[in-house]
Amino acid sequence: MQDELRIIPLRGIGEVRAGDDLAALILHALAAQQLELCDGDVLVVTQKIVSKAEGRLIDPQSVEPSAFAQQIAAAGRKDAHYQEVVLRESRRIVKMASGVLITETHHGFICANAGVDESNVGGGGLITLLPEDSDRSAVQLRAAIHIQRGVTVAVIISDTFGRPWREGQVNVAIGVAGIDPLVDYVGVDDPYGYTMHASAIAIGDELASAAELVMGKIDGVPVAVIRGYSYTPTESSAQRLVRDPRFDLFR
Amino acid sequence: MQDELRIIPLRGIGEVRAGDDLAALILHALAAQQLELCDGDVLVVTQKIVSKAEGRLIDPQSVEPSAFAQQIAAAGRKDAHYQEVVLRESRRIVKMASGVLITETHHGFICANAGVDESNVGGGGLITLLPEDSDRSAVQLRAAIHIQRGVTVAVIISDTFGRPWREGQVNVAIGVAGIDPLVDYVGVDDPYGYTMHASAIAIGDELASAAELVMGKIDGVPVAVIRGYSYTPTESSAQRLVRDPRFDLFR
Predict the structure, then answer these.
(1) Where among B127, B144, B172 does a domain terminate?
(2) B 202-221 residues with CB below 8 A of A?
(3) Which of A86, A108, B16, B246 has the fewest Cβ atoms nearer than 10 Å?
(4) CA of A148, closest CA in chain B: separation in Å?
(5) Side-chain half-sphere of B39: how many Cα atoms within 13 Å?
(6) Same domain, A46 and A99
(7) Distance CA A10, CA A220 (A)
């Protein structure tokens, strides 16, 4: 039985720069907040600070836009340099309309503009790219926290994605370490003995969404601690949440 | 600034029957758990018990399958009576493949099988339909709680929906009362002065997802209380989360 959860915002991380030790920054902010990490805590960390720490920032003016990027830019609101960066971060275009690109990233995630983002970067004309390997980012952060603090947590790297049919973005998991983001009830009996056929729950995405509620877009809270969630620590991957193209009706 | 949230599972609701007073059942379970509702609490209630209380149950054998329902059934795993019910609950078929129907419900929600569900019903061959007007269900529950207990809460009626591209279902809001499920940051400056252009967050869905983490599919926890979430009480609707077809790239 799942008990009460706490979703705790972590403040005071401050500006993150390329090469920063994210584990150390997080542990320092936790200490300042007099919060002690526990085994089993789930740490949700926004992609933005992971990308910054990993130096995944780029000045779009430094890339030469292709003819195709120029064509996309002419139809929309973003400039050709930006569109060129988006194309380079994509392995497939899922949908194009009036300058909006929904693409599949090299990780297999499908989102607007391949996750390339201009907000919350902090001037200089830089934009952020998604971490090159967001599972690896999560694994490294989890290991660093274990080494520096001796606790075994789960880590979720999150980003806000739009979705078809529904308004608004929701926070989802793009990198995972120490927790299976997909809980499968297929074949399990409900309390009435009905065997469920299609009931896997994307708890990785739900944990990311829960964390977003204390983060906000403009509050400068890039990390949340989720305490009290029951799970079995395990090696896993956000790839568990990427639908196999063979079974995707909306590819 | 958003403070810590608590996500509290509500146990002991027990079996819900057509005509039951859901507000009374919830308040009784809260009392048994020695939990006092507060102004501002967000109550997330699964569609299943709302549908049961509203008598939105049907024996599929009682409907005559059309030729089209029989054709769908022949391609899939569900029977023709079930498919007939799904068709009657739909106003548009978004996608059909190997007996799987993704449809638009009469409310405008797009989901598998129009939300018609066989699990957690409790025998007799009955299946549940979504509430006829899930916003109205939320408004009524909110009003009944105010009358019976004198507190002003927000209510979210939730259901687990699959989504394109990503594995697993997540809990989303299909009925809303007392809270705006969409927080719009468009035009707001980020901490660095960058004005955001496409940043509305579907907090209604995120609250539903957060609640699911303490519900589980087989734990018999159909209600969660979210305490500590900052919002301005307001009349609103889950229709805020339904994308205008004119702006939907994946219709």
Answers:
(1) B127
(2) 202-203, 205-207, 209-210, 212-221
(3) B246
(4) 25
(5) 3
(6) no
(7) 9
Tell me whether residues B165 and A243 touch, CB distance under 8 A. Answer: yes
Q: Is A82 on the interface with B (CB under 8 A)?
A: no
Overall size of chain B counted in residues: 251
Residue A120 and residue A216 in one domain: no
Q: Which two tokens stand for residue A221?
A: 């809270």
Are A10 and A85 members of one domain?
no
Model ipTM value: 0.95
CATH classification at residue B176: 3.30.1330.100
CB contact under 8 A, A194 and B250: no
Of B169, B171, B248, the CB nearest to A200: B169
A159 and A42 within one domain: yes
- Buried-exposed string A166-183: b where 16+ CB fall within 10 A, e elsewhere: bbbbbbbbbbbbbbbbbb
Task: Residue B219: list chain A partners with CB under 8 A.
Answer: 1-2
Q: Note whether residue A250 is domain-resident.
A: no
Give the strand order in the sheet containing B110-112. B90-97, B100-105, B110-112
Model pLDDT for residues A210-249, shown as the tens digit of each residue: 999 999 766 679 999 999 999 999 999 999 999 998 888 8
Question: In terms of pTM, does the model score above 0.90?
Answer: yes
